[in-house]
Write a structure and sequence with these properties.
The structure is a homotetramer of 365-residue chains. The first copy, chain A, has 365 residues and is α+β, with helices and mostly antiparallel strands. Chain A is built from eight helices and 18 strands. The first copy, chain A, starts with a strand and ends in a 14-residue tail after the last helix. Chains A, B, C, D: InterPro entries: Chorismate_synth, Chorismate_synth_AroC_sf, Chorismate_synthase_CS.
């Protein structure tokens, strides 16, 4: 219980169901003096919001965030920041047919068993709608990281079904509805998604996130390791089934002589580690990959059971994304920002006064 | 800071360095009345301990755990349990040569930059020696899960370098020094490791852990999801660079019609989800895979920098495992046990009195 | 930082300033299946709300709470509960004169020094307005405690300036604007407050809270003791400067033979301990007293400094309570309810399955 | 459960029973670079330890603390610090007679009911023996506060039964076994205690603690207020039944014009607030008082019940302090140090980089 908060120093707590009155959250721990406005948060909310292309759900939400507290005369005051996003386009009627049955691959069954009851409308709290609040909170963290440390975060789609990205051009990412960084793949993606939609099926995806401009020394050695916190943040995004840091599962077949990143007076010569050594940031780019399953909300009929345990057929209606991985890009960025900000604040507490540190690799701290 | 604790309801806090006087920890939150003794914990400590085969480090440690509190007349009292393991075979002299230089691929550089100083002997706190305490604490969790819920956990080596396991026979796992569940691969593993040792290099590995006898309903929907907590626990194990639940990265190329696990009155017909739906256990086996990098402690010379930023050559001496993945098997089991116990206790708090639940799939709760 | 949450198992997080758009909070950890509606929470909000008598501030707020999530078809779902209370009657203009100076006895100076800036309107986050959210959250806890354990909580004014209550008649408490349980003191209170208001001064008060129907065994032995958590909850209420459990400061002059409460087969014969022994509830009534300072917002001119450190005169305008202790009664009840609910949930987690307990004193568990 | 930790940024976790093998703890969150040795901690351990005067228990313990980790070459490394204190003089036989009965005024009954069993030897975990670990941990905090901020903490006995201290001379405190700061009362205390011991009874006490050299700005505004955390820390000390900050319960009869501390360009003119305004330190001395009950372990026979609920007579044997308040002085100092250090680290995290602050009252920050 009490599992709706994330972060120890910079803490985000959320509330809200897919078809309730509103969703929202409280951001606690933001230092005072940070310039922030609703429009700072809106950019990423718009990137995540539904109804922006034919390849995402047809549900239309403005996703306009309101800052209710914690900001005075344009700057954070150091007190808790209340965030509110109203739900406008609920069509709960779409969901009355699933009140007494469990959509396979969804949380319907586990919620019913865990709580003895559930808000079945649109999946209730298990809906990815809740992630809008994470994106808003992450917007605050992004602004802080950029202003205070020069850290910048960008995510992108690195694979969709069989289509793998070959090159990463960050300028391309936000020019297409797929957050794809490789212009040469856009046509193939478009064709693939068109066919997929026609078939009524859905597809998995791989999403990557990178943090540039990292300081050395973020992360704790044993349990609150930077990589462990990132893994928790990413695996906690709806539909994610795998997380990698740096070379990830490729390390299984690597030798030590090949994997270890050599240090030179000019810096590291490679980044197999993905920017984390012993749970602590090395100053290199933090590189994270994650696998997102295909949504189970598809129009192809399937078999399931009802609340009494009887076998029945099911077709998922409602409005859904054929590839939930796409819209996960701004969510993953937000969660990485929240983790990094949490660790930046820890770092300050630890090293503020006791000693000064001189960077060993010039410009690395 | 204060990053040496894991778990919210069942909390494990550890201390100790590789070459200090002792390592140890405090287990807080274990309910009263659980029969436990040092010998219950020793079994897994012995599986993890160094010096048991020619393929692990030659360091010899008895790893005898002492229970200092919290157990009275053979049963837990409900108060905190103090655990102590003495370090016997420290040869700190082996490490004097790395006091002023950074082993590539190790935490030497990040510790030095984070803290401004470090206990360089054997990697200090970054050494996997600390995981012995996790194994001891996990032993308490394992005992509880078995006694109270009938949950059983077993881990195994699923891949070592190029050698993949084909079949999983749990009876085979503990009969060989590799924790390999496939008897037909033992000879190949032996040959591979012999050659590897000769070459002075190291190799990565994939380790899997499975929990059987799971109840439905463990895990929170949004942030303290069961899969997110597992991801954090596993990524927090030294050398882990990737974590998967169920089909993991295979989902990227799966379609929704293929991935979703069908529910029938007799139960699920497949387990692509790996036992977790919407962050909550489904009652199916929880299936976790992780990738462990090859250790950077190899006898092949490499390049690095010293504490003043000068380029120097380095050869790692000391006694090391050529494949750290092998001994990670009992550690991964322990961490999964700790996560599951934490969620079992949450579950009790939540559902204790408000309502009774009838299992929908017979025998599923 | 991140100091806007209270409770570990039942967690209340609040946001909002005195003169912002709204105040609100998130209640996390409430088990599913509890019947709750806005009107359940409104009763106590109305008891706390300003503008109800001539002895409280003239500010008029409806204090209508809106439940935004976590309740479905009249029952809690087990997910986080979003609460919102709009601010209607802000007259921020009243406060422009304190933007650059520090009211003595207020948090103006400490906020300015801590954060480097502050929302000065009505004291911003330091205003007791925030406590409305605690009262709403406490309403949920009160309902749960009554429904699940039969625990009932009532608070009252036990002293106002020189006027001490002689008898406690719980039926009298809510019949007068002072929450005074002694009918014979009402006239004196009325006269005292009338004179006080005329003089432009304010007065301190003592408030008591009692929980009846307590189970045995709530509280942890060492750090999360029931009495320590109560002390934290009460001292955290605006203006509180002292907290007592049971006989409180009277114990200084007591002897052991006098203080210790004798146990008999029929129960305890006295309650000097105030219902807590060794940090754990004994099943007797939990008895708590607290001292509230006189508000520093008085119309008698005083001396202070401005933001540049210059000496200046100050008269506090705005609308204020001459005795803030009075309205603290429902706040103290709410905080006690939150602490007890937190410990009830812990208790379940701990004792759910391991063993059954037979009460030693009949009817005591 | 899991209630054996205190502090969020600087976290102390303890284990151990009165008559177990050892007691100990883990201090997590201490920044690196602090010079610390066992002898730094021993001073306060010796002040607290039993057997030093005829007015404390006759149990003899060396209370020698061993630092097992987290310190390298005389300085903290930033990792967790393991502390161990062996129990030498256990005479568990003394307690066999209370295995099946409940000493009135003790935690025997509540432990038995909470856990269904208990380590009855010397009160097990409920014994004040555990506080030795708090004193050791507090020693680290004291050293840090002095070195980094110039904060100094001293506690003293301010009342014992009917004998009240008139003057506070800090030079006198450690020259007598009562920690009494008023030389003129020593004779009276001696006579009182001699008579008390003869009578076989015990007496309550009032203890005060003061922190000097405070920075402005420690503490959070709403829930993790400095005063609330202090209240929790003090009420969590064995036998404490009341806590006051500044004027404490005297405020009940004070008027606002009298209570509010006037600010001048030279600083505050009085300290009724006890150094905390709105939950945040004002830079003035933090002043805390607490009431400690008379121990229930007295040689005067009493009535109680046994584990079956039968009425029986009881005489407490074992070796006990006739006034537990005396030895609480170093414990209270340690807990105040732990709270202040926790908030110093928070403060750093919050204000490290965003803005510089200029003190308004010269020398106040």
């Amino acid at each position: 219980m009490a599992g709706n908060s994330f972060g120890k120093f910079f803490t985000v707590t959320t509330f809200g169901e897919s078809h309730g009155i509103a969703i929202g959250g409280i951001v606690d721990g933001c230092p005072p003096g940070l310039e922030i406005s609703e429009s700072d948060l809106q950019t990423d909310l718009d990137r995540r919001k539904p109804g922006t292309s034919r390849y995402t759900t047809a549900r239309r939400e403005d996703d306009e965030v309101q800052i209710l507290s914690g900001v005075f005369e344009g700057k954070t005051t150091g007190t808790s920041i209340g965030l509110l996003i109203k739900n406008n386009d609920q069509r709960s009627g779409d969901y009355s047919n699933i009140a007494d049955r469990f959509r396979p691959g969804h949380a319907d069954y586990t919620y019913q068993q865990k709580y003895g009851a559930r808000d079945y409308r649109g999946g209730g709290r298990s809906s990815a709608r809740e992630t809008a609040v994470r994106v808003a909170a992450g917007g605050i963290a992004k602004k802080f990281l950029k202003a205070e440390y020069g850290i910048e975060i960008h995510g992108y789609l690195s694979q969709l079904g069989p289509i793998k990205v070959d090159t990463v051009d960050t300028n391309v990412i936000n020019t297409n509805p797929f957050f794809c960084p490789d212009e040469s793949k856009l046509e193939a993606l478009d064709a693939y998604m068109r066919d997929l939609k026609k078939s009524g099926d859905s597809i998995g995806a791989k999403v990557s996130v990178v943090a540039k401009g990292m300081p050395v020394g973020l992360g704790e050695p044993v349990f609150d390791r930077l990589d462990a916190d990132i893994a928790s943040a990413m695996m906690g995004i709806n539909a994610v089934k795998g997380v990698e840091i740096g070379d990830g599962f490729d390390v299984v077949e690597q030798k030590g002589s090949e994997h270890r990143d050599t240090l030179t007076p000019q810096g590291f010569t490679s980044n197999h580690a993905g920017g984390v050594l012993g749970g602590i940031s090395s100053g290199q780019d933090v590189v994270v990959h994650m696998a997102l399953k295909p949504t189970s909300s598809i129009s192809i009929p399937g078999q399931t059971i009802d609340i009494s345990g009887n076998a029945i057929d099911i077709v998922t209606k409602g409005r859904h994304d054929p590839c939930v991985g796409i819209r996960a890009v701004p969510i993953a960025e937000a969660m990485l920002a929240i983790v990094l900000m949490d660790h930046c604040l820890r770092h300050r507490a630890q090293n503020g006064h006791v000693q000064s540190k001189t960077p060993i690799i010039p410009g690395s701290v």
